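User: Could you check the structure of this?
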Amino acid sequence: MHECMLCERDMKKSKNQFGNGCINNIFKFLNMEKPSRGKNKEQLLYRNIMNRTSISRINKEQKIWLADRYLTYQYLDRLHYGNFEKLKEQINADIEKVNQVEKFEEMITARKMKLKEAYDLYKRERKFEDNLNKLENNDSGEENEKLKLLIASFSYIFNMYGNKNQYEKSHFKAMQYAFWQTVIEVGRKYAEFDISADFLQHSLEEKPEDLYITNGKVVDEIKKDNQFKEKINKIIDEYGKGRRQFIAKGNDISISFNNKDLYFSIHRANMVVKGNKYNGKWEVDISLDDLYDYSKPKGITEYYFDTKSIPKSIFSSTLYNLASASMKLGVMKEYMIYINFKTNEDEVKK
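Assistant: Sure, the predicted structure tokens are below.
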């Protein structure tokens, strides 16, 4: 089987190194003038590459190897995600010494990055940036199914099982980071998920510190949440009956929230409630702690909070599972969230 150097498809009986479609794409990619009909495209390609690299007096095989390494360099050089600088330096070194090589395997980068691998990374990145642009420019009127499919289309950058090459991992990790930055922007713009966006942004830091929150929007939203109010009222009724003070804690005191922004940012918090009765009214000190963590993937239908509005469910099961993959790869990191504030019986009964 004789394969195209670029796409590695079977070219059957052809004696060329590139398929006709691939070599046309290469001329376009390199901004080279297309050869006139009848001229040997490959020989013209080799001559053009030799001129660009100021290399001469090489044999037939060395021309092919030069084209391989030059194209590999050019595809890597067009990538916006990942760090390929050291690899490109090594490819340049291989190019400069191509006239001294008797076997392709003698080149430093022959096994580090194949032309097909660099070409695939380039194509995937073009697809990624196109989909990222669609996600960034999505409006709240986008059909739910289309948006769900769009989000699912990013799943390939989270599948690291078949990508063992260190350079590929660097590339995919950088694209994951860019994806989450867009999710943050979409979450703020269309769903008004400021808390979820802030917490997600914090997880993307190199070494996120634990958060300690005593006031601000997080506390305000918790105080207004119906689920929280019901929980505190129930605790006061159960633990405060016949007493002037109480402490409620344990597995039964954990809480989730009705508020969607809180629901997707604080998944299931542990809670300690300390109550003191003054002048016949309860004042309570609330302590919440939660591990910001997506380590346990959820079923595809489990985590949709609002199935009528996907932008309002931007941190739904699909994204939750993608976040789980980013956690394992170290793009997102876990950290603790500690929240402490006071409220009273009148506030929770409103």
